[in-house]
Amino acid sequence: MAPGEKKSQQPRKRFYRARAHSNPLSDSHFPVPISPAHIDWSLHFPAFFKSPLEAESEKIDLMHKESTSDLEVNDKEFSRDCCSEECVSKDPSLNHEADFMENVSVKNPSEVANVQRGQPKVSFADIGCGFGGLLVKLSPMFPDTLMVGMELRDKVSEYVKDRIMALRKENPGQYQNISIIRTNAMKYLQNYFQKGQLQKMFFLFPDPHFKERNHRRRVISVALLAEYAHVMAVGGILYTITDVQDLGEWMKACLDAHPLFEEVSSQEQELDPVVTLLKRATEEGQKVERNSGDTFQSVYRRVASSSAGC
Amino acid sequence: MEGDDGLNSDKVVAPALLALHPLCKFVVVCVGSQLRAYNLLGKCQVDVKYPSAQSRHEEAIRTITFSGEGKLFVSAGDDKHVKLWDTETWQCTKTVHASKKVSATAFSCDSKWLLYADKFGVVYAMSTKLQGEGLASSVVLDQPVNLLAHCCSIITSLKCTADGKFIVTADRDFKIRVSVFPKDPLQGAHEIEGFCLGHTSFVSCIACIDVGLKSQLLVSGGGDGTVRLWEIETATLLDTVDVRDEVGIADGNFESDAVIQASAITCVCVSCDGSLIAVGVESLDGVLFLKCDLKSKRLMLLQKLVLAEHFCPTSMQFDKNGWLWLVAGAAQKTDSCKENAVTWVKVVSSSLDDTPVFTPVELESIPGGSLLFETLDGTDSDVNKAFALAEAATIAMKNELSKRQYSNEHREFRKRLRNDKKLQRKV
Ligand SMILES: C[S@@+](CC[C@H](N)C(=O)[O-])C[C@H]1O[C@@H](n2cnc3c(N)ncnc32)[C@H](O)[C@@H]1O
């Protein structure tokens, strides 16, 4: 439990029981934003962003207000307080998969972009964040950095949402910089982040998918690394750790094979305060530690493309 | 089961395809497993030579393309065979066995590489050189290599830009990806330039505007009924035309829900000077012409051209003289495993003015006249059948590319069956 987490307020995991696995390759049925410009981050980080609504009312532009009325939620506090997918899914600009039709009024992405220009951007992403232990640890370490967890299983992401909400409530002014998105990060990363946006990406104890025919489901592959490299800033760091040796070797081999990633030296890793978190910040990590299992970690830097390389 | 219209609801339907040689030497129509080629200069049918009778395409051909200078041609599709052709002799010089059904193909701008994409979102590259053509280790080079992948999404269209800089791939997950064309394709394409995001449904087709502009442009059409114009290098959306409005207004039945829902873009093509874009729309009998203003980088609707009742094009291409070649039709296997293939080819000329006028080309002006149509249309070009089959092909495409829709009840029902829910009830 993180400091500031009181037992009484915390959501209890047993009410969020989820299936052990979700197939990341099957069709999904949650809303996905059309592009990063369509996301209203103020719903995730109200302390950091003006919501388009607030910016709007400052302008006192009634005509405009009319056109964005879809966004108006009666209980404004509610919408501002939660960092949830629920709020996100109320966002009319999100595509509800195939049933996205023009009868849903699209929020003008340029409006959101205007409001959010010059505002902070999410720069850490924890992929397959599970119950969110890493985010909770990172939050006080980097209080001015926005970070999101991405989780495919809806129950688990709901747990993380409730956990963050409880933390914010119990610790006014804190934990405002972390949030959770329920999505398939293998498919929809580009819908959330712009090119070069992320400084850190985490892949902690990803599902191993042992069987060879299921290797395509692994969250790290040479092909997917191209997409991760795309959303990462040059110089950004990608962290992976696993207790499955075969998967550890696989992830290292993929990273070595990719020209846009380069291993971070062990001296440098020692100086990085985040590296020490990999083993025990998350629920999965703690489980492995309790069983005193081995871990295999790889820490790589996103490098610029050398004209020779690619 | 075969219905009144001769359609078999259980069997795959594949739309007819058309490709023109860049120098107008040949025109090729593919329908089902059949490949029909016509020599426009010699005004005669081309005898396409498979190495043996067994090496013909066995299933529907889904993609055909000429290389940039026209020396090579590729055909591929549901039988997972990628066939490379020498257009000098129309010999099939190479057959590659893909591991999945092939959905799109392209040649690199220097014709040295053949790229093909499969239904699992993987793009492969292979050398177009033949054994003995100065290849040191032809065995190795003959193996297609994994170039890039969209995570488990069907790739609907694949292009290489004429400047050699980029590979553009479109998929069913609303995405268009721009990848840097690698120095050595055998090492893979690891660098992504950008993603063109904006379509709100599957992207069905893309076409490059290769007219030597400083920044190359791309047109795309989607299941959302829009045609979009992009700048490739920056992945910027420049303009969007919602064809649903246009189709509706032109028909005077804008109110009709049927029009609004059934309007996926099926094909787009760009004239050689980049100024004209022809668009095929689901169940629209005719073509929509858009003007592409290369200075302001905007699209404008010019006109809807109805060629004939029930002529609903499935594939089209402009030739270098500004003629638009269109085919409408599709093929389906019958219960007895014969092929029910219907095609209907038409040619339209456009005056290349500021406000072009489009007119169907007279039979006399077409090289070879009726022989051309006999060759390309085969024996069956029944209008109504072509229409019914083309419709069925579009619906098949939509079904494959759209996300399955579950009603709320269905979703709740599935949830109740899930183990985690059962557990929770016990708690
Ligand atoms: C073994 S858990 C590890 C969770 C957490 N990182 C930890 O260390 O405790 C892996 C998590 O990744 C999630 N996941 C798997 N594939 C995913 C995907 N494509 N996108 C987002 N989450 C995914 C799973 O639902 C699961 O919660």
Automatic annotation (TrEMBL), chain A:
NCBIfam families, sorted: tRNA (guanosine(46)-N7)-methyltransferase TrmB (TIGR00091)
Key word tRNA-binding present: yes
GO MF term (any one): tRNA binding
Name of the featured protein: tRNA (guanine-N(7)-)-methyltransferase
Alphabetical list of HAMAP family matching this protein: tRNA_methyltr_TrmB_euk (MF_03055)
Catalytic residue list: D207
Reaction(s) this enzyme catalyzes, per UniProt: guanosine(46) in tRNA + S-adenosyl-L-methionine = N(7)-methylguanosine(46) in tRNA + S-adenosyl-L-homocysteine
Location(s), subcellular: Nucleus
EC number: 2.1.1.33
Family to which the UniProt record says this protein belongs: Belongs to the class I-like SAM-binding methyltransferase superfamily. TrmB family.
Keyword terms of this UniProt record: Membrane, Methyltransferase, Nucleus, RNA-binding, S-adenosyl-L-methionine, Transferase, Transmembrane, Transmembrane helix, tRNA processing, tRNA-binding
Stored Pfam families: Methyltransf_4 (PF02390)
InterPro entries recorded: SAM-dependent_MTases_sf, Trm8_euk, tRNA_(Gua-N-7)_MeTrfase_Trmb
Catalytic EC class: transferase
Transmembrane feature ranges: 219-241
Cited function: Catalyzes the formation of N(7)-methylguanine at position 46 (m7G46) in tRNA.
Residues reported in the UniProt entry to bind S-adenosyl-L-methionine: G128, E151, L152, N184, A185, L204, T282, E283, E284
Pathway per the UniProt entry: tRNA modification; N(7)-methylguanine-tRNA biosynthesis
Signal peptide: none
CC per GO annotation: nucleus; tRNA methyltransferase complex
TrEMBL record, chain B:
GO cellular component term, pick one: nucleus
Coiled coil: none
Cross-referenced InterPro entries: Trm82, WD40/YVTN_repeat-like_dom_sf, WD40_repeat_CS, WD40_repeat_dom_sf, WD40_rpt
Domain of life: Eukaryota
Name of protein: tRNA (guanine-N(7)-)-methyltransferase non-catalytic subunit
Keywords, in A-Z order: Nucleus, Repeat, tRNA processing, WD repeat
Pfam families the UniProt entry points to: WD40
WD repeats: 54-95, 196-240
Family according to the record: Belongs to the WD repeat TRM82 family.
SMART domains from the UniProt entry: WD40
Subunit-level organization: Forms a heterodimer with the catalytic subunit.
